[in-house]
Amino acid sequence: MVFWRGVVAAGLVCGVVGGARVEAQRLPGGVRPEHYSLMITPDLRAATFTGSETIDVVLERATNAITLNAAEIEFGAVTASVGRERGQQQTQIPFGNDKQNAAVTLDAAKEQATLSFARALPAGPVRLAIEYKGILNDKLRGFYLSKTKLRSYGVTQFEATDARRAFPSFDEPALKATFDVTLVVDQGDTAISNMRAVSDRAGPVAGKHTIGFATTPKMSTYLVAWLVGDFQCREGKADGVPIRACATPDKAGLTKFALESAKWLLHYYDGYFGIKYPMGKLDMVAIPDFEAGAMENFGCITFRETEMLVDEREGSIPAKKEVAETVAHEMAHQWFGDMVTPEWWDNLWLNEGFATWMESKAAAAWHPDWKYDQDVAGDLDDTLDLDAQATTRAVRARAETPAQIDELFDGIAYGKAGAVIGMVENWVGEEVFRKGVHEYLAAHLYGNATAEDFWDAQTKVSVLPVDKVMRSFVEQPGVPLITLGAASGGQLPVTQRRFLLAGAGGDATRVPEVWTVPLCFKGAPCRLVTPETKDVEVSGAGAFIYANVGDKGYYRTNYAAGQLAAIVANAETGLTPAERIGLLGDRWALMRGGEGTVGEFLDLALAVKADPNAEVVDSALDRLETVAKRIATGDDRAWLDAVVRREIAPVYAAMGPPSKHESWERVELRETLFGALGEAGDPAVLAEADSATATLFSGHRPADPTIADAAVALAARKGDATMYDKMLRVAQNASDPDLKADALHLLTRFEEPILVMRTLEYAVSDEVRSQDSWTLIALLLSRRATQDLAWQFVQQHWTEIARKATVSSGARIVEATGAFCSVERRDEVASFFAAHPVTSAERTLAKALNGIDDCIHLRAAQEPELRKWLDAHAQ
Ligand SMILES: [Zn+2]
Question: Domain span at residue 550?
Fold first, then answer.
């Protein structure tokens, strides 16, 4: 699955708002499902469906009761028939006529149903036949309804534990089986599922037709999918595999780019994994209402519209980069996750870490010109900060209930696990690592495996202690800080400890974490630093020593003063852009952790202001803005803004006007500089923003279209109701999903209190999709100018917000409160969510409170330092 990356924060955590706390447990075992046959008849108008299902199971021993998973399912007739001895020529097990009926007992809290039989069923094969009814819900999970202005669609999202809402099942990842899916749909509608359609006949009643799909390979229940509606598809082919990219008819013109990327990627993955894509076809479908970013259903990938649809000709490169990465992520899962699946959710991180690491590797192989390495460096930085909070968790964590499993889908499972995998690949070498991946997959095809299986394969192939390195990063929480002393005789003293951001506090009773880390120097081979290592050999390293080549290591680095000065002096010439991003991240984090001052950081940030790489400048200016918003108060803010204007205006001016064929990166850079100057109150930029916005809303092309988004965001701050209404109309009527999302987000830029209230009311109205509602509220909570009003609203309208919430949106609102920066607000957040608990958001709340403490601490520690720096620089 890919999380909806949204626009708010790095650590995205799933959760469920309100409702009964779900305490479902593991199934008792003793029953092995082998094959499901499902016939599903949805009624899209009534929002219900009926199911007719057989499950062939093998009983380990005789029993009177079989327990499986079911939630919001109404059972009809349930029978069991015992399998007979197989005839010599027969491959199928024949089931006898000695059917017996089951009594069904439901346990709603455990999401389980127990089928009880008067006569014991013998050990061996048994066929269960189940008639049932279910609901097409509006919570974006299980089998649910998605709507456009014209009609409803029936779609599925089963990861992690929601297949049980669509069919009674043994809904655990290790209980793999084969599936035959049949859908009965309206004449004129189509159906898409994991496999290709093999039959399509009229009936069983007038106005319906019945579509049967080929039998799947052995797979987990959470990877089953089916979609019903009038989707339209564009077709292509790669390595002999038919690929389709599908959307609702109004958006069918936006599927070309996703299809082209999938064609390239399928061939790439066939080669990389050394195992051919097995499903006979691949479908990708964009769905109007979708909770996550995308989902890797085997052979049938589903997407949020903005993650798959982009205008081939008009779409921006950043929008295309995101689509390519999302397609690459879900396609990587077809092998890593779908063919070979973790035994249980505690190893979910291996799935998501691998796909997160692979998404940029594969997309970068397709488009080396898109500089994914810089995006990866930026993401790594966010993850390191998240993991330097005292409230972080170890990558591998126990999870038994659906709520606990949901909370595992976070920035640690994706970001940290992906970074650790990237660090290992960089250390052992690309080809050695690829072989290890192949060995692991080949040994467990269509089965399940554990993280140990993965790192044991890598250890064997590389003949390096990959297991020790991965274990130390997976089983312990937090970030190592590697401190290097002054070099002497080609030796560098090295120490390590866990790094925590300011305000995090330590626990003296805890055994301190120590890591086994491959430390990779620029211009020298990697050295393995173990807990016992006292110094490392660095002879052969270049003119200055930089200990994180390519920014691939999952650690923060601190240097002796002289060494740091040499690195900073050589940053623009001796480091790659990704390494510069890493250096900025390290210095910023170390300042927050109490080493160095905000003034030293500002000097470094201004030293890279003219960097030609948009992502480097963005990392620097983003933090300058954070200093302005989180550290500076009163006059300091005005003085800091004046410094920013003085330093950045000449860089922006030097870019000159946009040329006709400007590169995408220059466009990004121009917009970043323009936005920063506008935020700092540059009068010329603000005037340009107003005029560009007026031109745009009068239906014309502004003089400089490359700054359009930033211009509107700036103009909206002082925007009035007339401008707001224009923006709202774009949000309501845009057919391009990206434009629609941008317009929605820009509504949160209006600062006039009446307009802030309008956005809040709009966010909880029926006009905004559940998937977007929380984003608007979270954005308003995250900005200083709007957060007080938004917080008041959240407290007063919690019932409405909770009613509209989906699986994860409640937790994301909790998360957004982490942007506050006062003791008063921290206490309010703590007491409000104590009184209004959000399920699956326990850790999220702790992190939000931790974030507020960090900010309070940062301001207290660095405000005097900022004043000193301003005294010296603000003239
Ligand atoms: Zn994923």
Answer: 479-566
Cα–Cα separations (whole angstroms), residue 701 to 686, 688, 694, 697, 704 = 18, 14, 10, 9, 8
| Separation of CA 870 and ligand 1 centre (Å) | 45
Q: Active site residue: 159, 307, 325, 330, which one?
A: 330
d(CA 400, CA 378): 33
What's this model's pTM, rounded to 2 decimal places? 0.94
CA of 290 to the centre of ligand 1 (A): 15
Torsion of CA 291, 297, 301, 304, to 10 degrees: 0
Per-residue pLDDT of 716-751, as tens digits, reads: 999 999 999 999 998 998 888 888 888 899 999 999
C-alpha 121 to ligand 1 mean position (Å): 40
- Kindly give the distance from the C-alpha atom of residue 368 to the centroid of ligand 1, in angstroms, as a whole number: 23
- H/E stretch holding 54 reads strand 48-59
Collect residues with CB below 5 Å from ion ligand 1: 1, 352, 355
pLDDT per position as a tens digit, 118-164? 999 999 999 999 999 999 998 899 999 999 999 999 999 999 999 99
The H or E element containing residue 495 is strand 491-499
The answer to whether residues 759 and 716 touch, using CB atoms and an 8 Å cutoff, is: no
Cα(598)–Cα(424) distance, integer angstroms: 33
Q: Is 74 a catalytic residue?
A: no
Distance separating alpha carbons of residues 353 and 188, to the nearest angstrom: 41
Does residue 687 sit in the same domain as residue 738?
A: no
The CA 81 to ligand 1 mean position distance, Å, reads 39
- Residue 536: which CATH number? 2.60.40.1910
Q: Are residues 700 and 746 located together in one domain of the fold? A: no
* Domain identity same for 538 and 677: no
CA 425 / ligand 1 centre spacing (Å): 19
